[in-house]
Design a protein that fits this description.
The protein is of the alpha+beta class and 145 residues long. The chain contains 2 helices and 6 strands; from the N terminus they run E-E-E-E-H-E-E-H.
Length: 145
């Protein structure tokens, strides 16, 4: 059997680095990936893939990426579940990262981050896929977090 996935996209927020009680680093982040085709209105939609990365790789990933960073990640899908307070069972699927690549130079990443930060301060939505300053409308209901 095979369980392998490779995605390329941009981080929707800065990775969240934490440590387990035994001191193991773990980071969670979401990668936005454009769909191949446009919808009926001619707009390109995106999928938001939840990811987790462990140990030293998590620390390295967090030190060199931020919201808007273009990354390639390779890993395996994992599901888990828990019982919510209302009694319903909640299922979570996430990509557990085995390998990653930074897909832009440090200069490009800094320019991209500056553009996104500037637009965020101005309370404007930014197309994190292109990071060219074009605005898009995203409501809170569109985001998985």
């Amino acid at each position: 059997m095979m369980n392998k996935a490779t995605i390329i996209g941009r981080l929707t927020r800065d990775p969240d680095l934490k440590y387990t009680q035994s001191g193991i680093a773990v980071a969670a982040f979401t990668v936005a990936v454009n769909r191949r085709y446009t919808n009926q209105q001619g707009e390109r939609e995106a999928d938001f893939i939840n990811c987790v990365i462990w140990r030293k790789a998590a620390e390295i990933f967090c030190n060199y990426t931020h919201k808007g960073s273009l990354v390639g990640v390779d890993g395996h899908l994992q599901t888990r579940s828990y019982d919510a307070q209302d009694g319903h069972k909640v299922f979570i699927t996430e990509l557990v990262i085995d390998e990653f690549d930074f897909l832009e130079t440090k200069k490009q990443a800094e320019q991209n981050h500056d553009q996104i930060s500037q637009n965020y301060v101005q309370n404007q939505a930014v197309d994190v896929f292109e990071a060219n300053g074009q605005q898009i409308d995203i409501s809170d209901e569109d985001l998985p977090f």
